[in-house]
Amino acid sequence: MKSLNKIAKKSVLNTDQLHKIEEILDLIRKNASSEFEVIWKENKRKRIPRSILSDRISEKINRIKDSVYRSDLFEDETLFQKIIECCCPPVMIKQVEFENILQRVPSPYLKAIFASRLVSRYVYEYGFDANEIDFFNFLREYK
What we know:
By secondary structure, this protein is an all-alpha fold. It has one domain. Helices cover 81% and strands 0% of the residues. It is built from eight helices and no strands. It has helices spanning 2-9, 15-46, 50-70, 77-86, 90-96, 98-104, 107-126, 132-142. The longest helix is centred in the first third of the chain and has 32 residues, at 15-46. It is flat, with a radius of gyration of 18 Å.
């Protein structure tokens, strides 16, 4: 936090704004770390170049995400809210309140966030060779 205070003194942003930025960056870092881990494991296991694995994992995520987007998983309110809340920096939830976020953000955006977050977590946790049964088990564990 000291570094944020130093930056705030030299910036047009205040400490609260920098704190929000730091929370968003933390979410980005966690996502990047999860993606790195699955690429690293698959590279060690299969000896496929990381750049190719990155493309394949992105394709897998996009393919499953499209299926989730067309499904009725959004109707599970508990799961939907849990996933969306994971994507919101805590400071945003504190300031705006989660219910207001759900009301203000258009439904198609929330669905896209839901599908992206759910599927990326699944692929990062279960790996490239994960299948439909694994996804079913992942959903049960996630709830």
